[in-house]
Amino acid sequence: MDLWEHRLQIHRIDDEIVGLIHRRTCLAKDILEAKLAMGAGIDDAERERQVLARVTEMAKELDLDAVAVGEVFQILIKMSKDRQRFLMNQNSDETEPSVEKGAVGCRR
C-alpha cells in the first residue's frame, strides 16, 4: 500500500469520527430532557469523572496515550454541555443556526 492509499484510509476514518461526534452531540437533547425530568442540572462532575475514567482505561488497554484520549473526551463533554445550554436557552423557534456555539443540526 502506498502513501496515498494510507491517507485515503485515514480520510475515511476521519469521516467516521466526525459522524460519531455528530451523533454523540445530537444525543445532548435527549440527555437534557432526561436531566430536566429528574430535576438535575446540566453539569454532573461525577458522571464526567466516570466517562473519563472509562475511556482512559480503554485507551491504556489499547496502548494509546490515555492523557490525550482524556483530553479528547473533555472536549466532547464540553461540546455536549454547550449543546445542552444552547437548547436550554433556545427560543421555541425550530431553526438552529449552525454557527452558534452549541448549535448542531440534528436530524432524526
Question: What structural keywords apply?
Answer:
4 helices; Chorismate Mutase Domain, subunit A; mainly alpha; 70% helix; 108 residues
Tell me what you see in this structure:
This protein is mainly α and 108 residues long. The chain has a single domain (3-89), classed as Up-down Bundle (Chorismate Mutase Domain, subunit A), CATH 1.20.59.10. 70% of the residues lie in helices and 0% in strands. It is built from four helices and no strands. It has helices spanning 3-26, 28-38, 45-61, 66-89. Helix 1 (3-26) packs across helix 4 (66-89), helix 2 (28-38) packs across helix 4 and helix 3 (45-61) packs antiparallel against helix 4.
Shape: flat
Helix content: over 70%
CATH topology: Chorismate Mutase Domain, subunit A
SS field, number of helical segments? 4
- Poorly predicted spans: none
What integer is the average pLDDT? 89
Distance between the termini: 38 Å
- Please give the number of β-strands: 0
Based on helices, strands and strand pairing, what is the structural class? Answer: mainly alpha
Biggest sheet details = none
Write down the secondary-structure element order: HHHH
Strand content: under 5%
* Second-tier CATH architecture: Up-down Bundle
For this structure, what is the CATH class? Mainly Alpha
Explain briefly what this protein structure is:
The chain has 4 helices and no strands. It has helices at residues 3-26, 28-38, 45-61, 66-89.
Summarize the helices and strands and which ones pair or pack.
Blueprint: H1 3-26, H2 28-38, H3 45-61, H4 66-89
